[in-house]
Amino acid sequence: MQKDFHYYATYCAACLAGYSHEESMEICYSAQFVDWCSRTLLSKLKAPRAAATTQLQLELMDTNPDIIGLQEITRIWSSFHFLPYDLNATVKHGSKIYRDKYSLICNTNGELVRNTVSLAKDSDLQSVGVAMHVLADTWAHRYFAGTPSLVINNTNYYFYELMPDGEERQLNFRHSASAPDDLERSIYTNSLYQGSEHSIMNLGHGRAGHLPDYSFIRYKYLPAWGNFEEIVKDNPSDFYHAFCQMIYAMKYLRGVYARFELEKYDTESVAPWDAEIRAILEKRQLDASDDWRALGEKISGHAIEDFDLEKYQDEYISAPKSEKDETFLGKFILAALSQKSMVTNKIFKSGNLLAGFSVDFNVKGFRGMRDYIMLVEKAGRRQRR
After folding, report:
1. Which residues pair with 221 in a beta bridge?
2. Could you read off the pLDDT of 131-153 as tens digits, one per residue?
3. Which of 29, 118, 310, 324 has the highest CB neighbour count under 10 A?
């Protein structure tokens, strides 16, 4: 998904879930910041680089395609953008490495979604924002995996856009990163084909370009992992479910519900705005930010400020070391470390080493990267309260 959904639509969902304007702004900022919190930015802030929630293109290009580099990629992209659906998924044929990659395929309403939302319970608003980004992306990025894999993520010539009038229009892909997608002619940009199984060009939905991130599009294709059986992706429906599920999840986090259950969608809160929301989702446009923003301001009665990447950076940089964890970005960093640690640990415990080794620090003590000591210290502070 893009800023239009992670920032503006998340603001709308937070308001409908009962959060105040100020709280909704913190939540949607955190959700959008997941797409910007790179190791490069964290280095600039002199913050723990293990808290990275994304990788810049240059960072990916500089990553060695060895086991260490591939594990770093998988930790980030599987934890925040392609949450695995079933870590114990099995296939009839294939090597161990193929089965491991197959088990990382993203889909909605998996047990890790429950774990992600539950992790944000009784925590800061930054944790809520991180959880909403991860939850929303399970809908947009379903059927792709957050690890480089040609056999899992590749697409071929059989790729058709399903037009509103019933026409099935074959898509044309190009590799010009500077050229915007051409909706009129169904020409879209995707990553270069690379025959290497581990090439970063085969990470996530790169081979399908930005199509999974557009709310308006419906398409069908034949993934190799699905025995070349046709998959139909209905983004307007998926994005609508993502929006309604976010509202339900945030009501749970606010304490409205005692338990978070999968496959629950708050259509009741959406009902007064249903027609406007569906119109935004169906509108053929590359960026729906203006429409979501207008709707959010109508719902809350407040102006929604632009996303400013540098907004909280000075606060974090100037804060004494002992107080950094209490700044906005400090709380985001802790939320990111918690999410990454949880997902990586679940992957490791399933017998899959694609995201590296992981130890449950609250069971066996600290045996990992230095930055994760922060999670131990955070847990200690909570116990003393």
Report:
1. 159, 231
2. 999 999 999 999 999 999 999 99
3. 29
Where is 381: in which H helix or E strand? helix 373-384
Domain-located, residue 164: no
- Asked if the structure places residue 134 within a domain, the reply is yes
Please report which residue ranges of 3-49 form alpha helices under DSSP H. 3, 10-16, 21-33, 39-45
Residue 283 in domain:
yes
Q: How many CB atoms lie within 10 A of CB 235?
A: 22
Rg (CA), the chain: 20
Total number of domains in the chain: 1
Rounded to whole angstroms, the Cα distance separating 338 from 358 reads 13
347 located within any domain: yes
- For the entire predicted model, the pTM comes to 0.92
- Determine how β-strand 187-189 pairs with β-strand 159-162: unpaired
Phi, psi values for residue 188, rounded to 5° = -130, 155
Digit-by-digit pLDDT tens for the chain (385 residues) are 899 999 999 999 999 999 999 999 999 999 999 999 999 999 999 999 999 999 998 898 888 778 898 999 999 999 999 999 999 998 888 889 999 999 999 999 999 999 999 999 999 999 999 999 999 999 999 999 999 999 999 888 899 999 999 999 998 888 877 788 999 888 898 888 888 888 888 898 888 889 999 999 999 998 888 777 899 999 999 999 999 999 999 999 999 999 999 999 999 999 999 999 999 999 999 999 999 999 999 999 999 999 999 999 999 999 999 999 999 999 999 999 999 999 999 999 999 999 988 765 545 444 444 555 555 555 555 555 5
Give the C-alpha separation, 39 to 51, whole Å. Answer: 8
Six-digit token string for 235 = 């983004």
Q: Which domain holds residue 284?
A: 3-152+235-384
The CA distance from 236 to 216, in Å, is: 5
How far apart are alpha carbons 218 and 260 in whole angstroms?
A: 30
- For residue 8, give the DSSP letter: I
Residue 137 C-beta-side C-alpha neighbours within 13 Å:
33
On whether the CB atoms of residues 111 and 331 are closer than 8 A, the answer is no
Segment (H or E) for 293: helix 289-300
Do residues 203 and 60 lie in contact, with contact meaning Cβ atoms separated by under 8 Å? yes
